[in-house]
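just leaving the lab so this will be short. what follows is a protein written twice so to speak, once as letters and once as structure tokens for the fold. can you read through it and tell me how you think this chain folds. thanks a lot i owe you, the record is right below.

___
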Amino acid sequence: MANRVNGVNGLGLWLAGLVAAVACTAAMAAGPAPAGTAPAGAAVGVSAAGGLPGMPPVVDARNLYSEVAAGKFSPALAGDLERIYVPNLRSNNVTVIDPATMKVVDKFKVGISPQHIVPSWDLRTLWVTNNAEGRTDGSLTPIDPRTGKPGKSIPVDDPYNMYATPDGQSAIVVAEARKRLDFRDPKTMALQYAIDTPLCPGINHADFSIDGRFAIFTCEFSGTVVKIDLVGRKVLGYLKLKMPATRFKEVAGAPRTPPGKVWEPGETEVCTVTKGMPQDIRSSPDGKRFYIADMHADGVHIVDVESFTQVGFITTGVGAHGLYPSRDGKKLYVANRGSHKIHGPKLGDGSVTVIDFASEKIVARWAVPGGGSPDMGNVSADGKYLWLAARFDDVVYRFDTSTGDVAQVKVGSEPHGLTVWPQPGRYSLGHTGNMR
């Protein structure tokens, strides 16, 4: 999530028929069959024919996460160190943690305002996106995953976040302040072409269709998402997300969940905010829906892929922010940052909500004992832990995915988009490890 606001008064331009009225006060609105289900005889071993040319084939159309299951490592990862890499936004450095010992084993300086650590499409480089927050001297710092050491930074304009086209031909630098996507050579970072997104202030997180032909990016400061045609290289349209009638009340300094207790939703209030603040986005296993975390709505919007309309909403917790599928593709972990504010307080009402993909029901809630601010991260290679940066508390959390128990490691100032490495999968679509 960005740390500056680029104001826009309304959008005014929409594709006809994109927005459907949705009753967002319910935990889940009616819509098509729940994600994760498939008719008998659904295709398995789908080829890339009809998809983005050059994209690796979809192995299981019922579960696009089938190849990121525990143990399914690419041979390219042989020799890579098991590490947690944490970009510290205010310290301008990266903290390196050995997950086996839970100890900090290294720390090194990078560029200005490191936001995320992004695995490259070919899994051979971890890129630190130093966007320099409002300045013009942004950069990308490469990390060699075999040594854990950084290389020479490459000057790149405003790299807030970074993704990759599913065919591996381009790195997509999310130039948030410029309202632009810069498609660059994945090795040299030389500019190939750009797509302007003028109605998407705060463009930041993305996910891709199951066929790789388009991507959806969230627009943090307008409460919308934008659909990008990766073949035609153009904007296809925008969708404004509906706000719920109520949301959780943020109470500074209120008692937090004590150790050993389940986090429970607190007091609610009338939602007077007219537009959301969408953050992370992830596809359902069958590729039929997108789930979009919204920090102002305190939950996850559900968007139907085929019609590009909103079909539901799931209330999760204060400041819904990061989204991570489990290794078996059955659950979605939602990191609730504990505040509606861009610069939130320490020890907020942070939590993790676990959603069952098939039923779209909440199956678990995990507290941060004493309060906290779980933000961005990923699941361990074996699926046993969920690692998340504590954005306002200068630590990282390790949640046990079977019990919800939390361990902490002290890091630098304002940790953001950490990545876990290595991770299973054939290739990376970017962010902190959106693997396929």
Q: What stands out?
A: The radius of gyration is 20 Å.
